[in-house]
Amino acid sequence: MNNQDLLNIAAEFGSPVYVYDAEKIESQYNRLTYAFNQVDSLKINYAVKALSNISVLKLFKKLGAGLDTVSIQEVKLGLKAGFDPSKIIYTPNGVSLEEIEEATTLGVQINIDNLSILEQFGTRHPKIPVCIRINPHVMAGGNSNISVGHIDSKFGISIHQIPHLLRIIENTGMHINGIHMHTGSDILDIEVFLYASEILFETAKHFPDLDFIDFGSGFKVPYKPGDIETNIEELGEKLSERFNGFCKEYGRDLTLAFEPGKFLVSEAGKFVAKVNVIKQTTSTVFAGIDSGFNHLIRPMLYGSQHEIKNISNPDGKERFYSVVGYICETDTFATNKRIPEIKEGDLLSFNNAGAYCFSMASNYNSRYRPAEVLWYNGEAHLIRERETFEDLTRHQIELEFNHSKKELSDEN
C-alpha cells in the first residue's frame, strides 16, 4: 500500500479515513508465532480493544488467532465474527458479577482480577474453569496511563495476596485452569518482562491443574524510522526456553498464551486527513486538518508520536509545521515538525494508526466518526461507512416544549 493507493482511497471514500493493511497485520502475526516456534502449544489472542472492526476480527480468525476481550460487548463481537467461544478469553476490570456470569453463558474463558468477585463467582459457579489475573508489581510501559502491573495499579490480584487467594479457592472448590499477567504497553526492556515472567512461574506452582499461562503483551512497536522496539525474536528465544523448562518442572505441557493488540495492528494503520487551512502566526505555521482528537486522541491522551507524511507532496522542500485539528479545544498532533511543504487541500497520512485510534474515536463537537477501509489483496474494501447526521440523532429522544409553565398549570 503506497501513497497513491492512499490518495485513491481518500478520493473514493472521503477524508478523514482510516486504512488498514491486511498484509502487514498478517506479517506481524507470523513474526510473533515464528518467534515462539519452539513452544509446542502457543495461543495468540488478539486484543479486540485495539481495533474492533468485525472484518479485522474475521481476518484474525482466518490467521488462526483467538481473541482477548475486556467487555461483554467485545465478546459478542467476537462471536458475531465467527469465533468459537473456546477461542475467546474475557478479561474485564471492575465489572459487575452479572456481566461475568453473562459471559459464562456464552461459553468463553473467564479471567478474574480481584478477590471479591473471585470469591462470589467461585461460591456460585465452582465448576466453571477460571483464569486468575496476577499483579506482579513490576513497573513496565512507556506511559503511566498504560503501565498496569505496578503496585498501585487497579489491575490484577497482588502477589502478596496469594495466601488469601488460595483460601478462597480451597473454600469454594473452584477450578483454576490458567494464570495471567499484563505489565503494560510499550515494553522496551525484555529483561523486565522476563523478570515478571519468573514471578508468574513461581505463582503457577500453587495451582496443580493449569492448562495455560498467559503472559499478556505490551510489546513496543516503532513509531518512526530507526525507532526502538521490543526485540520479539530475542524474547521468543529466551522465554520459550524458560517456558519449556518450567513445563518439565510442572510435570506436563501447558499452553503459552499472549494477548497482543498494538503489536499486530498499529503499524498496519494509516489515518488520512485533508489540510483545511495553513495559518501563519508570529511564531508558528499551523496546518489545520479536517479532524481532531475526536478521531485520534492518542497524541493528546498519551503524548504518543505519530509520524506525519504529506502524501500529496512527498518530495517537497521540508518546512516546519504544527499540525492541529478542528476541535474547539487544543488538539495538537505535532509541534514544529519537519514535513514536506504543505498546501491547503493536501492530504496528510498519520502512521501507526491501527491500534487504539478508531476504537477511541468519539462524536465530540457532534462530528461524525470516519470511515474505515481494509487494504486486502491489493484492493480497498470499505469496512465501515462514514457516519451521517442521522447516526448522531438515531438514539436521541426529542421532547416537545410547546407550552409555557402557566399554560401547563392552567391545563391542570
The low-confidence parts are 140-150
CATH structural architecture of the largest domain: Alpha-Beta Barrel
Q: Count the E strands.
A: 18
CATH topology of the largest domain: TIM Barrel
Could you estimate the helical fraction of the residues in percent?
A: 25-40%
Q: What percent of residues are in strands?
A: 15-25%
What is the 3D form? globular
Number of helices: 13
- Average pLDDT confidence is 92
Distance between the termini: 68 Å
- Characterize the largest beta sheet: strand count, sense, and whether it forms a barrel: 9 strands, mixed
In total, how many domains does the architecture comprise? 2
Strand-pairing-aware structural class: alpha/beta
CATH class of the largest domain: Alpha Beta
Q: Name the CATH superfamily classification of the largest domain.
A: Alanine racemase
InterPro entries: Ala_racemase/Decarboxylase_C, DAP_deCOOHase_LysA, De-COase2_C, De-COase2_N, Orn/DAP/Arg_de-COase, PLP-binding_barrel
Subunit structure: Homodimer.
Keywords: Amino-acid biosynthesis, Decarboxylase, Lyase, Lysine biosynthesis, Pyridoxal phosphate
Active site: 328
